[in-house]
Amino acid sequence: MSMQFPDQESLSDRNKGLVLAVSSSIFIGASFIVKKKGLRAAGATGIRAGSGGYSYLSKPLWWAGMVTMIVGEIANFAAYAFAPAILVTPLGALSIIVSAVLAHYLLNEKLNLFGLLGGMLCVAGSLTIVLHAPEERPITSLLQVWQLALQPGFLLYVVSAVAVTLVFMLHIAPAHGTTSIYVYITICSLVGSLSVMSCKALGIALKLTFEGDNQFVHPQIYFCLLVVAVCVVTQMNYLNKALDLFNTAIVSPIYYVMFTTFTITASVILFQEVQSPRQATTEVCGFVTIVIGTFLLHSTKDLDITLAGLNAATKSTFSAASLSELQMQRLPLTSNGALDSPAPTGHRMTNSDRF
Prior knowledge:
Helix content: over 70%
Strand content: under 5%
Shape: globular
Radius of gyration: 28 Å
Number of strands: 0
Largest sheet: none
Structural class: mainly alpha
Order of helices and strands: HHHHHHHHHHHHHH
Distance between the termini: 103 Å
């Protein structure tokens, strides 16, 4: 008698989305490491990407990382077709774990104890925002998304995002891009939020087209394709610079946090979801957690802190405090309650010394 496992033979749409989302995180997390190895190889023989070089384009290892990232993004795009965003988006945090573990073993990049705690706070804050973000309204056509995108609120967000990106690219990045990790990642995150909105529109168009309602007759779909192409190229360029200059274990969580925050903001504005006071308060708490986590992660990245080191420092501090207290107890008191200093060596204490 043969045994049958219906759950394994025919997965539900939700399970398919879950599998695709987890697979996406694994591929994207691994792509950071493969691309970083390609960037290192390119920097050893040519101009580094952080200095404006593009020699990494001739390295097969970098292209392998790029292909890995594309596979991950395709899996992530497909996951949204089977599962709700509230399930798919938080699983993007898994890419941080994958990236940190692989960087430890393959790139010899160390993540100290406070950095690990900061990364966990970043992930927790991001999950808090994602899980309490309002659900999107049902969308049935590409033209419906286009009408929403023409509303004043989203147009203001687009203009602001483009303006801030241009200021960072033209003025801040040349002066501070090599010293501040937030410069390049801010550019990637802002541009990425616009690319996600365009990808959502394309996803809706492709789904409707496969169902028999051809959306490629609308010129708006080609504008969305152009936006995605420009945004992806910009993202990859500045993400390469960040990966080339800074620790991968630091770049991954900060990029995830900022990208998630900007994407949720763009989504809320575009689809005009109404939030309750409880939702808004929870999202603010999540954002504060992210800020604390990123500060802890960034401010302690150059410190060599381990659990054993903290234990040793704690014991040393306790011993010093105990010794100081014991010395204080041995000092005699004067008549007015002040501590009397011990007499110098070879000097006999007299009543005049004491009083």
